[in-house]
Design goal:
alpha+beta; Serine Threonine Protein Phosphatase 5, Tetratricopeptide repeat; single chain
Length: 388
């Protein structure tokens, strides 16, 4: 059973949950203007997923520049208008009768600019309760088969406050679409997320990466960076969850296994961590970093002799990489080889020497490509505070 709270990247989190639906999506929100989420519902309808939506009949939800709700009806979805009193103010969604999404977040462009939250849970009793409430709303709502005919009989509610919000939604939508044009592809979102992660702008990085995964559910590099981000921010269980999710999708890489190992190490589940680092080593035997991390976990598990053997092998591989790339080649692998050699070296002066080499290389990297986590690790050695 899992319960996840989201305070940033909420639209991407909702889209991610919707994209995984296999049988049904039930939505009840006061206001729904977000074309991106609406498009996801249309895509699920095309995949023969049942979609039911309950909204208010007012000018925010229904206006000439807003969502074409007839499109949802014509695609096989079911639209309901809530009763006028008491007013619908829910923001809930039940997916496959197995997950619930709820919180303060309306599915609007304006909500993206507020301090909002959602909770996503697969807790059975909670899902059951929200499904019951959705059914209760449905029993009191009016099904709409033709938007034009319904509007002629029951025009969308309006007043100065609703009209103002409707105009603001149009403005927010235009800004959002302009922003989307700048970040059209999965690759661009991943690069933006990675750049933000390098600079420790974690909320921004998470938002970009969740958006990337909403576009491409099996994007391996987005999973890798996100797992590392959660580890760096000590959200170890979330790091485990994202790595396991990638594994369930059939994604495998040394980086993912390494990230999962770090998360287990953070949870002090050292045996699981060591297993993950061994898997990373199998996939990328030329990389010294999994050896370094395995060494740390073995020390945490009090496997002193095994840790010493790991340090020797990892040190040998790091030395080979330094020899290979010192005169040109892959600066990223070279920098990490220096740092792995520093962490695995028992002699502190020698470790600091390797850290100095890493620092000199770091300073030659263009600022926009510098990973500030590397600088943090370098300073840990130079300040005689190795992270093991």
């Amino acid at each position: 059973m899992a319960i996840d709270a989201h305070f940033t990247g909420i639209r991407a989190a909702i889209q991610n949950e919707l994209s995984q639906a296999t049988s049904s999506i039930r939505v009840a929100v006061a206001w729904f203007t977000d074309q991106t989420l609406f498009t996801t519902l249309l895509e699920k309808l095309a995949a023969e997923v049942s979609v039911l939506v309950v909204i208010r009949n007012d000018v925010i939800n229904l206006n000439p520049t807003g969502i074409d709700w007839q499109q949802l009806i014509d695609a096989g979805g079911t639209l309901f208008f809530s009763q006028e009193s008491p007013h619908l103010h829910h923001k809930l969604c039940v997916v496959d009768d197995k997950k619930v999404i709820s919180g303060s977040y309306n599915w609007t462009y304006g909500a993206q600019r507020n301090q909002e939250n959602i909770v996503v849970s697969d807790q059975h009793e909670l899902v059951k309760s929200f499904r019951a409430e959705f059914d209760n709303l449905l029993s009191q709502a009016e099904e709409v088969s033709n938007i034009t005919q319904t509007a002629a009989v029951a025009p969308p509610a309006t007043n100065s406050a609703l009209e103002y919000e409707a105009l603001m939604e149009i403005e927010y939508k235009n800004k959002d679409e302009a922003s989307d044009r700048k970040k059209q592809s999965y690759r661009e979102l991943v690069l933006a997320g990675n750049a933000a992660y390098f600079q420790k702008r974690y909320d921004e990085a998470e938002s970009y990466l969740q958006q990337a995964l909403a576009l491409k559910q099996d994007g391996i590099d987005a999973h890798e960076i996100l797992a590392g981000l959660y580890w760096r921010t000590e959200q170890f269980q979330k790091s485990v969850d994202i790595a396991k999710k990638a594994e369930a999708l059939g994604l495998k890489s040394a980086e993912l296994w390494n990230a999962l190992g770090l998360a287990y190490d953070g949870l002090k589940q050292f045996r699981e961590a060591i297993h993950c680092f061994d898997q990373a080593i199998k996939l990328a035997p030329h990389l010294s970093t999994p050896y370094r991390n395995k060494f740390i976990s073995q020390q945490g598990n009090r496997q002193t002799k095994d840790a010493d053997l790991t340090a020797l092998e990892g040190g040998r591989i790091a030395t080979e990489a330094i020899r290979k790339y010192k005169n040109g080649g892959n600066n990223d692998l070279l920098l990490h080889a220096y740092m792995d050699r520093a962490f695995l070296h028992s002699d502190l002066p020698e470790a600091r020497k390797h850290a100095q080499e890493a620092l000199a290389l770091f300073n030659r990297i263009p600022v926009k490509h510098q990973d500030m986590h590397d600088l943090e690790d370098i300073n840990a050695v130079l300040n005689e505070k190795p992270r093991f």
